[in-house]
Amino acid sequence: MQSTTVRVNPTTHKVLANLAEETHSSIQTVLREAVETYRREVFLERTNQAYAELKKNPKTWAEYQKEMAAWDHTAKDGL
User: Cα dist. 45→14, 51, 57, 61, 77 in Å?
Assistant: First the structure.
């Protein structure tokens, strides 16, 4: 596996090392999982912001709801 060096301050390194020890994993694994968790959080925040913007415009929000209703009928599962 290729790797690269990432500089972190001593406090962050200590936190990473402690988490690695507690979870019986490597610092690299802890960091990879933390970055993935953060990536997902940012994605969801942006998605929520986009929905909030969509809701600000009653016309586009109504169009969106109409389209979602049409898709709901395609499943025919009653959910």
Answer: 28, 10, 19, 19, 30
Q: Domain span at residue 53?
A: 10-75
Query: Does residue 53 lie within any of the structural domains?
Result: yes
Establish if 4 belongs to a structural domain: no
* Type of residue numbered 1: M
Q: How many residues does the chain have?
A: 79
pLDDT score of 72: 79
Buried b (16+ CB within 10 A) or exposed e, 7-36: eeeeeeeeebeebbeeeeeebeebbeeeee
Domain count, the chain: 1
Query: Which residues of the chain register pLDDT less than 50?
Result: none
- pTM to 2 decimal places: 0.76
What CA–CA distance (Å, rounded) separates 41 from 48? 11
Q: Within a domain: residue 57?
A: yes
